[in-house]
Amino acid sequence: MIRFALPFFVFLLFLMEGTLFQIFVPPSPDREFYLVPRFVLIAVVLTSIYRGAASGVLIGAGFGLLYDVVYTDIIGIYMFSMGFTAYISAFTYRSVRMSFVWPILIIISAIFVLEWMTYGLHYIIGGTDLLFEEFFMLRALPSLIMNGTAALLLIHPFRRLFTRIREMEELQHR
């Protein structure tokens, strides 16, 4: 039962991105910037850090495919980008896992990498004509600030979840 807890919580974050966030922070033509929630990516990166690259890539690619199906017309952009971001953010060093600052920095870097990769892929195939400077100032920077704050709020509950999963796995192996 505990093995389904992580995908369940990540799915709840996916639902929050598309529903609750849009209710509390609706898109407005009066604003010059866009806030793009990446709560699922935060969970994917935390999974990569605390559970390893294989778990992070599996969760990242699975939920990236879900992003592709729900939000885009092109299958594979988010699937590849989230899986790749999960892979490069998998630090298994004990000092990274025990620190509070390192995971936050890794999450913020991973969010920027995902935003940059998806923007680049869309720019290459002609899905957007937005220049990088505009993209960075109007979308990436505000989203990094908002998602960094969300990461501060999500890191402790996910650490507790990963500790609980590890304890349950140890009990099953006895």
UniProtKB/TrEMBL annotation:
The keyword ATP-binding does not apply. The chain crosses the membrane at residues 6-27, 39-63, 69-88, 100-125, 137-158. It is a multi-pass membrane protein. The keyword Cell division does not apply. Pfam families: MreD. It comes from the Bacteria. It is found in: Cell membrane. Keywords: Cell membrane, Cell shape, Membrane, Transmembrane, Transmembrane helix. Belongs to the MreD family. This is Rod shape-determining protein MreD.
